[in-house]
C-alpha cells in the first residue's frame, strides 16, 4: 500500500507512452496531462512535453493550465512573440491568474529586463495563494541586478516556507557573504539550527562563516556537528581539514583529507592539501608525491603546478621552479600572481632581462603591490637602466604617494645618476615623511650617507621636527 501513490502518479505517464508506441488514442483528464507534461519538463524531455501539450489541447482546448504549459515551453525555446500573443489571449480569459504574470516575467528576464520582471512577479505575488515559487524567482531576479539585500529577503521567505529548501538556504548565505555580513550569516544559521539541529548543510555553512572570520575553534565544532549529522558528508571532512591546518594540527588534517579520498574518488584539491600538510611536517618526499598526484588528477589545475613551483623554489632549485611556473602560465597566462612568481625565479637565476619582462607583465595584468614596483625598479637598476628604474618608481608613487620606501629608493637612484637636485628633493620628502626610516636609505646606499650635504639635510630635518 505504501507504494500506491507513486504507482498512481506513474500510471498516466506509462499509459501516455503506451499510446505513443501503439498509435492508439487514449483519453486523459486535463490534470493527468499536466502531470505528464511536468514530468517531461522536469526530466528535460522537451519533445515529449510538446507532444503531450499538443494532444492535451486537442482533448481539452479550453484548459488554461495546458495553454500556460504551452507558453512555458515557448519561452524556454525563446519563441517570445508567439508566447506573448498566447498570454494576451489568456489574460482576456483570466486576468487574475498569477501564472500569466510569471510567464511574462520569464520573458522579460530572458530579455535582460529584470526590473520589468520584478514588477510582474510582485503582481503575481499579490494574486497567488502560495508564493514559494514566486519568491524564489524574485530572489533570482534581484541577484541579476546585484540587489543582494532584497534577494536575501526573498530567499529567506523560501526557507521559511520549506526549511528543507537547501538551494534557497545556500542562496541566503551567498547573499550574506556578498554583503560581507558574516555576523548576520552566523546569526541566521544559528537561529536556523535551533529549529533544525541535525541539518548537516547548515552546520557546514556555519563552519565556513566561522572560518572566514578566523574563528577556528568554532568552525571546527561546526564541521564536527555536520559530520555527526551525516558521517558521509565529504565536504565537512574537507573543510575540517582546512581548519586543522590553520590550527597547525597537520596530522589530524591529513586524516580528514584521507577520509575524503577513501569515501569517494580522489580529487586534485584533496591531493593538494595533503601535499601542503606533508610539506609543513617536512615530509618532503610525501609532499612531492601528492603535488604530482594533484596535477596528474587535474592537469589544468594551475594551483597544483604553482605548489610544485613553490616546493622547488623554497629549496633553491630555481631551474625546476621555472619549468613548473611555465606550466602554470601555459594554463593561465593572464594570472599576474604567476608572472610575479616567474619574475622572482628569474631574479634568483640572475636573468634580469627576463625578470624585467615578467614584472612588466605582472603590472600590465593589474598587480600594483608596493613590492612589485620596488623589485621591478631594482631589476631595472641591475640592468644598468636607472632611467627606467626611476620611471617605474614614479609610476609606483602614483599608487603609494606617501611610501618612504619609494622616496628613499628614488633619492638613491637619482644620486646614482648624479642628479643631486632631484636626489635632494626626494631625500627631503622621505625624511619629512618618516625620519625614523632613514635606515632604508643608509642600508641600501651607504656610499651617500657619509656625504656632508646629506648629513646637513638630516640635521636640518631633525631640528625642524623637534
TrEMBL record:
Instruction: Show the SMART domains listed in the entry.
Output: TPR (SM00028)
Q: Name one Pfam family in it.
A: TPR_8
The protein's matches in InterPro entries, at most eight in alphabetical order, are given as:
TPR-like_helical_dom_sf, TPR_rpt
TPR repeat start and end residues: 98-131, 234-267, 302-335
What the entry lists under PROSITE patterns is as follows: TPR
Give the keywords, sorted.
Answer: TPR repeat
Look up the domain of life of the source: Bacteria
What PANTHER family does this protein map onto? CELL DIVISION CYCLE 16,23,27, CELL DIVISION CYCLE PROTEIN 27 HOMOLOG
**Name of the protein:** Tfp pilus assembly protein PilF
